[in-house]
Amino acid sequence: MYIKYWPLPTHTTLLSALLTMQPSNPLLPPLLLCLLVTLRHATAADGCLAAEREALLGFKAGFNLAGDGGGSNPMSLWQGQDCCGWPGVACRNATGRVVALDLHGWELQATGRRTISSSLLALTQLRRLDLAGNDFSSSRFPELSFRKLRYLDLSFTAFSGGRLDPLANLSSLHYVDLTEALSPGSYRIDHLRWLSGLPDLTHLDLSGLDLANVSDWFSPVISLNRLEALYLEECNLSTIPISSATVNLSSLVVLDLYNNSIATVLPDWLWNLTSLVHLNLFQSGFAGPVSEAIGDLTSLESLDLRYNSLNGSIPSSISKLTGMVEMFLHANDFGGVVSEAHFSNLTNLEYLWLSWNDRLSVSLRRNWEPPFQLTEVGLGGVLVGPQFPAWLKSQTGIRRLDLWGSGIEGALPEWLWHNVSSAVNISVDLSGNRITGKLPPSLEFTKLTELTLGSNLLEGPLPTELPASLGSLSLDNNSFSGHLPPWPYLNALSLENNKLEGSISSLCQSTSLQLLVLSNNKFTGEIPHCLGESSRGLQSLNLGNNGFSGTIPSSIRFLTGLTDLELSNNGVSGEPLLLLENCTMLSYVDLAENRFTGIIPHWIGDNLPALIYLRLRSNMFSGQIPTELAKLQSLQILDLASNNLSGAIPATIGNISAMASSQATIFLLHPIDLHVYSKGQDMYYRQSPDLVNSLDLSSNSLVGDIPEGIGDLASLGSLNLSRNRLTGKIPQSIGGLALIESLDLSMNLLSGNIPESLSSLTFLSYLNLSYNNLSGEIPSGHQLQTLEDPSIYMNNPYLCGPPVSKSCSSNVTVTETESSEKEYGKNNSDLVWQCISTILGFVMGFWIFCGVIFFKDRWRHAYFSGMDKLFDGIFRQ
Length: 877
Description:
Elements: H1 11-19, H2 28-40, E1 44-45, E2 48-49, H3 50-60, E3 89-91, E4 98-102, H4 115-120, E5 128-130, E6 151-153, E7 175-177, E8 203-205, H5 218-222, E9 229-231, E10 254-256, E11 278-280, E12 287-288, E13 302-304, E14 309-313, E15 326-328, E16 333-338, E17 351-353, E18 359-362, E19 376-378, E20 400-402, E21 409-410, H6 414-422, E22 426-429, E23 434-437, E24 448-452, E25 457-460, E26 472-474, E27 479-482, E28 492-494, E29 499-502, E30 515-517, E31 522-526, H7 531-534, E32 540-542, E33 547-549, E34 564-566, E35 573-574, E36 588-590, E37 595-596, H8 604-607, E38 613-615, E39 622-624, E40 637-639, E41 644-648, H9 657-660, E42 673-678, E43 681-686, E44 693-696, E45 701-704, E46 716-720, E47 725-726, E48 742-744, E49 751-752, E50 766-768, E51 773-777, E52 798-800, H10 816-855, H11 857-876
Parallel strand pairs: 4-5, 5-6, 6-7, 7-8, 8-9, 9-10, 10-11, 11-13, 12-14, 13-15, 14-16, 15-17, 16-18, 17-19, 19-20, 20-22, 21-23, 22-24, 23-25, 24-26, 25-27, 26-28, 27-29, 28-30, 29-31, 30-32, 31-33, 32-34, 34-36, 35-37, 36-38, 38-40, 39-41, 40-44, 41-45, 44-46, 45-47, 46-48, 48-50, 49-51, ...
Antiparallel strand pairs: 1-2, 3-4, 42-43
Helix pairs in contact: 1-2, 10-11
């Protein structure tokens, strides 16, 4: 490469030496030549041209070195006269001219808009310029004019604007890397014609640049007939030519179109790129079959076609790719059978991935001996069983083995445990099969780093010993029984849906846990206090659906990195919410169906800003719903049902932006069952990006009106305010719930008309307004026409019209006033009849009594005799 320039003697020193020499001195000619060279560079000072040194210092002045850590940045060492000795600067030894500037990854922060153009153009002999990984977001893309520049790397610099056209002036360029060199939206790239000015280009990387508006991006590229490497990752490409007639990229060694949206069949000209070593079409939108002509790419070592929609059979001609090391074909729609013919000549294969092709099967003889030694095997979701593949016995160097959902049945072979003991750092995933039997009593002898055996038919006790290398263990959805052993080294443990019992105090020996899932077992006793002390790095804690009792440990306040907390359906008591004040990372909290008490604290809106899911139903929480809940802008599911909450629904409820926007999605560290009470029943969702938002405040003692702001929750899928004491009218704004599927306002004291806006809710499939004081004609039209069950409106005696049997007497809607007048008239009428009945009863009783006294002598004498005795007694007193 380039060598630092060593300074020549000064011209005055040489001249003095020459004047003392005789003409016949043999040193005279070379000293004269040296003098001429020295005079030629008399403008240089201490090994560096003054103009170029000043240019570099001017370039340095354009950066905020104080903000970059001051003296810790290599550019702070740009001092002194010899710029050729500065870090990142290289000069040609014969001339002392700066030929290379390499500041890769210095994390410099530019402050001016034209930092490069105004400062570096004096470096006219520059051959190499590498400014990758610095911050030029305040600067425009430079108008470079380095005629001799061969290497340009501006990747991850994020200029704030400018045009790429001046690059056409850099006609000597061989290498260009502009990966994410423009800030998103800073400049609309509408052509790549400047590439035609770079005939010697061999390496081109435009990854991360938005080329969606470049109608013909391919023509300038194929004009580069010396091109060896082409990287166009994540460029929003949507087109590519299919025909091979106009394509000449015979020198291409690397083609990378990772993550685009091309959405077409694989081009014919691909199979003519016989020099190709690396082909990466990962998630580029390609569909259709793969041609047998792929076998002509005999130089290919790495093939990545994963995450497209490719179908048909995997060509058997891949067996011709004898140099193949990496083959990634997973996450497509391949079908048919893969046999020994596909692999017979692949002696160099190390990475084989066919997972997520659920119509594909692998058929290999049990005594087949592979010609390769694999490092990674991915056959998850591909039919491999029912027997465990015997050919894997010879693969002793595997570091990752994925056979999940592969139709394997029966017990695991003994040799498997021997293989994982001889391998180095192996990860094994055999989940989703029908594997039976028990695990070895101890796995301490293995070199496992991850072991996933979930969703099988395994039973018996858990292994008592695990290797120190094992970081993740997942045995969920089996039939393991017994107690939980002490496993001190794990950082992730999932044992949900088994038959485990007893206490979990053995976890006190685990100090590295980040994920702990023990839900749906038979664990009992108290949640150990040590969980918040020994495992302070815990991020996900799921103890739901067990038999835990006692109070929630106060040590939970130390889990400041906790993202999801699931304790539902136990018998735990205490005031848990007051312990979560420091758990500011929480996004998922489910404390439902316990014996928890206390209030919902006001600080919840400020301290838990990431909260997405909050479920507190079926406890004994009391007090009012704090208005600060509206600050939880990411909240998608709020369930406070079946508690002792009182007061009004906060008027700010409509400010929860995630319930008003359909863009928010739930993301959790570990998949969890999300419980949503909707459409009159409990619904369970596995973590899902399209989960409907839900608000459930039912079965409390809430009073007052339904806030008008409720209608702002446009993406709400389920709203349940039933079994409260809400009064007033149903707000007209209810029509703003554009995505609502389930609406329950039953068993309240709501009155007035049902708003017409209700009929505009086109997704509504469940409605319950029963047991209120609603009146008037039931709205019709649109989605309401499909809700024909009269029980939706039962016990609202003043509602009329379909689907209830009571017809409206006229086309005029019965108003609240008319209803009140009818009720008043009815009450008055009842009072009159009560008075008349009382008077008639008195008169008839009186005359019956008198008639009896008149016609019966014995009764008459007895009556008056008794009266005389009564009065005599009174007067004696």
